[in-house]
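ARCHIVE CARD
SHELF: 3
SLOT: left
DATA:
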Amino acid sequence: MSIPHGKDSSASAVDRRTLLQLAGTVALGRAIGLGAARSARGITPSVPSDATETPRPYPFPVEILYHGSRARREIALTFDACPRKERPEFSTEIANYLQREQIPATFFISGLWAEHCQDGLKQLAETPYFEIGLHGYHHWKSSELTEQVIASEIERTRSTIAQMGYHPQPFFRPPYGDCPPKLVKVAKSLGVLTVMWDVVSGDPSPRSTADILEHRVLTLTRNGSIVIMHVNNGGIWTAQAIPAIVAGLRERGFQFVSVGQLVKHFDEK
């Protein structure tokens, strides 16, 4: 699939980008609704008796990161690792491909996923150009939680990964993209940057195909973009699509970096 190299300056190109972004958001929204229904049938949110959340310095230039600098030809591929009842919970094909190509990426890890997929976490955390972020312990919707439980979800995930010998970055991807103001407030008090995205791959949708994912990502990606995908087999076609996505983005001259690198250059105009 070929994508034009030039800037999408025409109205039709903008409309096409908007429609693709909307389609991806609708796909993600369906996943959010499914997750909320499962959450309602699951454990009642509570705070562990030993949970401690100590305020920390906040070193970041924004409260929510949707993208990096639009002046730099840098983009971040990000992958959520959500807990799933289905097995396997880890797409080794995605991680293996990124390792073969030596492509930096950021993985947002839930605490339950880390406990269930310790070999997968080891592979990700021990790859020097991969970055580990936080994705909540239980993968609950933040809008349904108290501030105390939100803080516990962040810190419990951080401590779970740390207890396994790894050091996650202070970046939090809200489960289901549910990002109420109270979440941002709590994350900031804990020295944690809330990380969203500006390119929705739509990979959780069963209606997507590898070609659809490729077209959507290549069409929507701009300087500084953060692309959301999944590495927990919640992304049905992600492993099949990622080689073509990487090749197409490279052809357009993009450099792959971690979320941490995007943050460093955020203020560049």
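SLOT: right
DATA:
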Amino acid sequence: MLHLWRRGGHACRVPPLVEGYTGVVKAPTSVLAANLRGDARVRVAAAGDVHCAPETSDAVLTAFDAIDCEADVVLLAGDLTTQGEPEQAEVLAEACRGMDTPVVAVLGNHDLHAGRADELTKVLRDAGIVVLDRSHTILGECGIGIAGTKGFVGGFRGLGLPDFGEPSLRAIYSETTAEVDALSDGLHEIALCPFRIALLHYAPVPETLHGEPPEIWTFLGSDRLAAPILEHRPDLVLHGHAHAGRLKAELDGVPVYNVSVPVMGQDFWLFELSAAAQAATAIH
């Protein structure tokens, strides 16, 4: 079961299977993980599109100092910087360096803009931030498995880019395919974790994009990312990128949140995952 709450008057840090979605969907695989939970309960703080830069360093330091120890993990859904420069990443690194709460992140399109993603990632990892790039991590002490990848573009519900035509267009389709495959592999690897989270930058559903011009939805995500989510049914899916979108949606009962800071209107959203959740379908 997923719980949200606010503290002290403000936020704490703050279709049958499924009609309209593209891709091959296998039977869900969440029963065994649910059986391993016991009476466990974990808290997750999440934010996307923090867009760190030297001029925002004081605000970033304040926000991350306030969230430390308020959750079992802090998850960052991409666009960690404004233009992808390592010195901008250093602002986030300084805020997270020495935190007691583990920080796990994926990159976003802004973080790739300068073409210095390797340098940026090194700055973050040197500060203790776990940066996931088509990979996963397991936090053993709290039993949280996180499958993380940027995701990519393509569109939704029959209006997406096809694998056809010019090589440049087919390359976009191929890039999204790699992201979908990585998400599927990561969710498979964390299948036995008591709590499982998919961490993305691009949206896997259109419902969290309402508020953005429909003409640009193709560039805000792809419903091809929904297929591994439907198959593995994680406890929580997080993304950012759509600054004018909506906070919350569901994908056949799986909660999906757009945790972009402009959408939340606060620094972090705090989730509680509890053992009360029950898997929908047995493993076959």
